[in-house]
C-alpha cells in the first residue's frame, strides 16, 4: 500500500500538548514518521474520530488497523498507532526502590539477633601512641 490513496490533511497536524517541540525532537519518532504525522495526521485523526468518512480502500484499511493493530501494514498505519500509544497511553513509571517484601525480610532477620554478647565491643581501643615520657 502506498500513501497515494490516502488524503493529505487540510492543515498540518501538530500535538502541542504532548509533543511541544515536535514529533522528531521528542526522541520517539524518526524524521520520516514526523513527516507522515504532519502531512497525514489531520486526516487520520478525523477518520479515527468518525468526523470524516473513508473514501478509499486504504482509508478503510487504516480504520481496521486502528481497531486491530495486528492488521497494520503500511508505514502510515504503524506510525499512527505508535502516536496513539505515546500520546494517549499512561506513561510507564520506574522507581529505584526495591520491593517491600525485601524490607519485611530484613525485619525478620533482626529478630534472630542474640544480644547476650552485646558487651563484648564496649572496650575502647586507642590507636594513637601514648606519650608517657
Automatic annotation (TrEMBL):
User: What InterPro entries does UniProt report for this protein, alphabetically?
Assistant: DUF413
**Comp. bias regions, Acidic residues:** 106-117, 124-133
Out of the domains of life, which is the source? Answer: Bacteria
Pfam families associated with the record = DUF413
Q: Spell out the residue ranges making up region: Disordered.
A: 96-133
The family classification in the record reads: Belongs to the MaoP family.
This protein is called Macrodomain Ori protein
